[in-house]
Amino acid sequence: MIPVSTGARVWLATGRTDMRRGFPSLGLQVQEVLRKDPLSGHLFVFRGRRSDLVKVIWHDGQGQCLFTKRLERGRFIWPSPSAMAEDRSSFLRGVSMFMILALPALPAFRHKRPRLSLR
What we know:
alpha+beta; five-stranded mixed sheet
């Protein structure tokens, strides 16, 4: 469990992010693109290209934290950049954050046809 303060917000970076980045370069992206302070105590969430990986950066007042979650199946549901074009970020409430991290979109079930043998 992450002991996030009650005043902390969750900011979602729309679009795709290079997931090879660590806290320093993601923090720089927060400053330059989102126009926020990465050391403010807010959580900043980034999505990978295939939508199966997210990274969350957070400064807890003592140090920098980087959390990663990769899905084995499915992908994370993410707002489109065009929907957030004016801001390039989205503020999330707790329920929305839970929906993104805990309830990913699972791939559609594909029914396999039985093979017919011609014996």
